[in-house]
Amino acid sequence: MRVTPLAAAATAALFVATLAGCTAAEGNGDSSSEPITIGLLTDLSGAASIFGPPTRDAAELAVEQINAEGGVNGRDVRLVVADETGVPTAGLSAAQRLIQEDQVAVLFGQHNSATRDAVAPVTSAAGIPYFHTPLAEGNFCEANVISNGEVPAQQLAPAIPFVQDETGSNKWFLLGADYVWGQTVVADAQKYIEANGGEVVGKELVPIGTTDFQSIITKIKQSGAQLIVPALFGGDAITFEKQAFDAGVGNSEVQRLGVIYETGTLGAMGADVTDGMYVSMAYNEAIQSVANEEFLAAYYAKFGDDAAPQTALSQQTFVAIRAWAQAANEAKSTKSVDVLGALSGLTYAGPGGDVTFGANHFATQSIVLTQSQPDGSSTVVMTFDSVDPAQDCTEPMGK
Asked: Top-level CATH class of 153-281?
């Protein structure tokens, strides 16, 4: 997810200059017996704060498991978490502290694309791998940056024809947040809809932070839409769906295909509002597999039955940390070039299925199409295995 990061980019450029000839990860050389410090940058406050706590908890679980299995190259791993706040300048400052003060060997970021754009140069200058873990718009290529979150091609290409076949409907309204992720989802959705014989009868982009969707709801009513792709997140998504439901344009009238309606967001909407919604993401707690059962058992044993549910966003961070440790152990090194070389082509068997990290910096992975039930739970309707991200980064990882 992305917002315009002009000020953050300028600050990043200055910071890169200060790092010339200096590697923040020097304290994490493999010859030491000291713990290897890793950093997590996520939203613990701000508009996307609903995503932060389960992400932090998933990261803590990953580190606990890695240490229980012998650590990385015989050394324990220590996690330091920083609040990104949803603001690129604040996220950049937090990343600077993790790199300069905490001397992290690797950075994991579950945050918007604007912060990614600001932070990537400083991680490159510091000589550390940087995993951007949430779903995003794609089309971002840097030698040290790994993007294992879903991209629109993975979420939409298989789901759109399936939903059209299941519902017998093909008239779509596309609604997105007016920044690069929402814009990309809307553009890609139109492409896949038209390629599969559907029709886009309306589309709108709205500013982040919109609180009144009545004019949009009127346009949806007038369009004759039978289906909606709502590319809205967090509080905006909750506000839209509640207002639409109250106005008689809920899911029972116009079928949703959500792409970031994770469990926490659906829970905040309420079961009456979400009943029947489809969601296309890489993970849901409803997945029936031994790996997911073990993951959830460990998670709730550690954090209690009242812990925030695990979502695709938080689970992707868990996968990234475990995959980094696997690659570092295979490489017998925590140096960026060695870890990224070992990561290229590596498959990690995660709670949502196998995730294969490609030389193109993105991940091939399973996508699950779920449907919300009357009690607020989700059921897996279809699993699309080994979905290619359709990304083309010409420079291999770590080069």
From this structure: alpha beta
**Architecture of the domain made up of 6-150+288-364:** 3-Layer(aba) Sandwich (3.40)
Give the chain's end-to-end CA distance (angstroms, integer). 26
Give the start-to-end residue ranges of the domains of the chain: 6-150+288-364, 153-281
| pLDDT number for residue 399 | 52
* pTM score of the predicted model: 0.89
How large is the average pLDDT for residues 165-192? Answer: 97
- Annotate 109-122 with DSSP letters as a single string: EES-HHHHHHHHHH
Q: Which residues are bridge partners to 382 per DSSP?
A: 369
Domains 6-150+288-364 and 153-281 belong to one CATH topology: yes
Place of tokens 């873990």: 133
> Average pLDDT, whole number, for the chain?
92
pLDDT at residue 2 above 90? no
Q: Are 341 and 129 in contact (CB under 8 A)?
A: no
Spatial CB neighbours of 319, under 8 Å, sequence gap ≥ 6: 133, 148, 348, 350, 351, 352, 355
**Mean pLDDT confidence for 120-145:** 96
Q: How far apart are alpha carbons 283 and 102 in whole angstroms?
A: 31
